[in-house]
Amino acid sequence: MKLIIAIVHDDDSAVLMEALGSEGFGVTKMCSSGGFLRSGNTTLLCGVDEERLDGALDIIKKKSSGHKQMVNPAMIHPAAAVQGVLPSYPIEITVGGATVFVIDVDRFLKF
Description:
It is built from four helices and six strands. By secondary structure, it is α+β, with helices and mostly antiparallel strands. It has a domain at about 1-65 and about 95-105: Alpha-Beta Plaits, CATH 3.30.70.120. The radius of gyration is 17 Å and the shape is elongated.
């Protein structure tokens, strides 16, 4: 058995959970934040049998797409903004996608 830990953008979490659930994968949602821009993200836990792992990962990949967003450079590095080394106009960045960890599970119990 494997444990998938998928950290996804908040905007993708509901669609991803629905897609995994419709394929019979159980998912636990944990709210989290941090990373780039300290934006909201969701951490999903999903236990899967090894033979279904690739199917679950395919769903995560398809439903966790990155998208473009305009941001103020000062949000990225406030100290540099104060020193005047960053442009004052908004820049386009890519946000979203998924960071996924797959971990071996020695024991799975459900009470």
